[in-house]
Amino acid sequence: MQSYNLVALVTVAAVLLFGITGGRVGWARGKYGVKAPAMSGHEIFDRHFRVQMNTLEQLVIFLPALWLFAMHFDNRIAAGLGVIWLVGRVLYMRGYVVDPSKREIGFLIASVASLVLLIGGAAGAIISIASTGSL
Q1: What are 99-116's pLDDT values in tens digits?
Q2: Where are the domains of the chain?
Q3: Count of H helices and E strands in the chain?
Q4: Would you say 81 and 66 are in contact if contact means Cβ atoms under 8 Å apart?
Q5: Could you give the angle at which helices 5-31 and 75-98 cross, rounded to 10 degrees?
Q6: Which residues fall within 8 angstroms of residue 73, CB to CB, at 6 or more apart?
Q7: Which of 2, 14, 90, 117 could join 69 via S-S bond, C-beta 3.0 to 4.6 A?
Q8: Nearest 5°: phi and psi at 32?
Q9: Which among 12, 52, 11, 6 is positioned nearest to 28, based on CA atoms?
Q10: Residue 134 CA to its chain's centroid (Å)
């Protein structure tokens, strides 16, 4: 039986990263006086909030793609691509908060990792169906 421990750890790290982005939004809300339920107010708060929401949007693609790749192709490569995604998201977060024009390299790194995971997971599933004839 194949072990998915590394992919599970990457999943935990991705969820923790999302939690960190939420914590940073809370911190920025307090520091810049953006009272709930306001969703904007100070430019730096807005940047933290946008990082959190974009990370949530990306998790919806990344997590299923990570697990599909791990199940249908290779779990170690999936975990490695997951680490690359995490690095990309951290670079995105750091760049976006400093200057939104500096978010691109992190976004590109994470997006390519997600795309490779998604294509690999889909290809693995198709190959499995074709080779076994089982849906």
Answers
A1: 999 999 999 999 999 999
A2: 5-132
A3: 4, 0
A4: yes
A5: 10
A6: 120, 121, 123, 124
A7: 117
A8: -105, 10
A9: 52
A10: 31
